[in-house]
Amino acid sequence: MRSTPQRGFSILEMVMVAAIILIMAAMTYGFLLAVISRTDEASAVESVRAIEAAELQYATEHPANGFNALDNLPLADPNLKSGFKHGYEFIVTLEPGAEGGPNTHFQVTAMPSGINELLASRTYYGDDSGNITFAVGRAPSAESLKVKITKAQ
Fold first, then answer.
1. DSSP one-letter string for 25-60
2. pLDDT for residue 109 is more than 60
3. Which own/partner pairs from 92-100 qualify as long-range (CB within 8 Å, at least 24 positions apart)?
4. The pLDDT of residue 38
5. Residues 66-88 pLDDT 10s
């Protein structure tokens, strides 16, 4: 009696291949989260720049009002008008002028929200001077390090 040769893979071979694939996927998961976090941070910086430009445009077109709230700005991105974009929450703080005068200064804050809070993302700040700074964490204290971001970064 002749035995026929077996075809295909054994269960043990299939389990080993599945284990190797799972180990490789687990190794790349941390890297994937870091890449997503960095792209969200880059988007936040560009969004702060867009808000700064929109504030300056609005103040130029409406000198009697000065700077304005986020939802009234001439922004092309509707997500940005809502105050949330790519894992960041955007807040515009206005400094009113003297007794009913136009708003004289503004500050834009981009704070991480959702999964970005867990990834220790940075909080970004922009103002009417055009400078953008950042500090680590969602609500950094006044003593935390703020680093100026230039266009090259």
1. HHHHHHHHHHHHHHHHHHHHHHHHHHHHHHHHHHHH
2. yes
3. 92/51, 92/55, 92/67, 94/66, 94/67, 94/68, 94/69, 97/66
4. 87
5. 899 888 888 888 888 888 998 89
DSSP conformation letters of the chain:
-PPPPP-S--HHHHHHHHHHHHHHHHHHHHHHHHHHHHHHHHHHHHHHHHHHHHHHHHHHH-TTTBS--GGGS--S-HHHHHTEETTEEEEEEEE--STT--B-EEEEEEEE-THHHHTTPEEEEEETT--EEEEESSS--TTS--EEE-TT-
CATH of 11-149, one of 3.40.720, 3.10.20, 3.30.540, 3.90.1200: 3.30.540
* Confidence at 60, pLDDT banded by 50, 70, 90: very high
- 29-54 confidence digits (pLDDT tens): 888 888 888 888 899 999 999 999 99
